[in-house]
Amino acid sequence: MIKKCGYVALLGRPNAGKSTFLNAFLGAKLAVVSNKPQTTRNKILGVSTEGNSQALLLDTPGIHKSQGLPKMNQVMNKVAWSVLSDADLVCYLIDVTQGWSEDDALWLEGILKKFDKKLLVLATKTDKVKIEEVEHGRLNIVNRFQNLFEGIKASSEIKCQLIGEVPQLISSKRPEEISSLRQFILSQMPEGEWLFGEDDLTDRPQRFVCAEIIREQIFRQLGQELPYKIAVVIDIFEHKNNVTNISATIIVDRDSQKGIVIGKRGSRLKSIGTDARISLERHLEKKVFLELFVKVKPGWTENLNMLSEYADLQDPNDAN
Ligand SMILES: Nc1nc2c(ncn2[C@@H]2O[C@H](COP(=O)(O)OP(=O)(O)OP(=O)(O)O)[C@@H](O)[C@H]2O)c(=O)[nH]1
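# guanosine-5'-triphosphate complex -> structure
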């Protein structure tokens, strides 16, 4: 049997629905989802295998204008772009409820000019709006994409190969739509030996996924600004007598943030801990004992060593 295997990059603006799409595609919770933009901080690989095909999906931080933002945001953008060089297919996601934006034009122009493989444009979250509004959003994306495409074609070469309709409408909340898109994407993979086992879900260690599950609760339970300056480091991760003991440190940037995370008489930290434990137990299918600590590391989002140590985030241009 001829085997197929390839990389699929999920790109799009923050909040476009990339992590939700990845989790739906895999049928498992791997990537952090919240209603705040820029939840995903790192490149996360999810493995999906069926029949003779294996697709390796790379979820990326949402690409955004990072000028004036901490170094962390600049590294996040570089991580998102670096996956293009590995990818055989790019899924570019646009939230149909938000419609096309100038950022989409900018990023898609880059992909059309530089990426010499396959491109699939997806309009996401179609379940959130009425059929007429979906149609309006679709037409808006079709027209703007065509203008962009023709404009580039007139002056330079289009490198990538468009596959499927532009845009393909999709809801990550509708399993039947995800299932048929999954079959299509698997069929588009190039011939090649599988790089992972049939039952593998990710290249990330269990500790990383668990740290992300705790970070997701912090994102969900804190206000708008704070979560971006927070990292989670797992200090102890051990299975004993059918219980998983996890001890983790929440890293914050300033003393005042420590107070916010802990809350009045520890109430917020307790609530984060309770919800994270429930989520961890669901993920690990085991009883979990979770301990959380909070530590202040001033300026960690600006320091490349600390970004690597606390958020496992490396500048791809600095890689050896
Ligand atoms: N109703 C509905 N909500 C969705 C869908 N896809 C994503 N969402 C919601 O949209 C929000 C953002 O989704 P994410 O998957 O975290 O988006 P993202 O593109 O990974 O975001 P970043 O991490 O900022 O790059 C979350 O509240 C999701 O629950 C969808 O198909 N339908």
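# post-check
Residues 12, 14-20, 33-35, 37-40, 61-62, 124-125, 127-128, 171-173 surround guanosine-5'-triphosphate (CB under 6 Å).
The chain has a mean pLDDT of 88.
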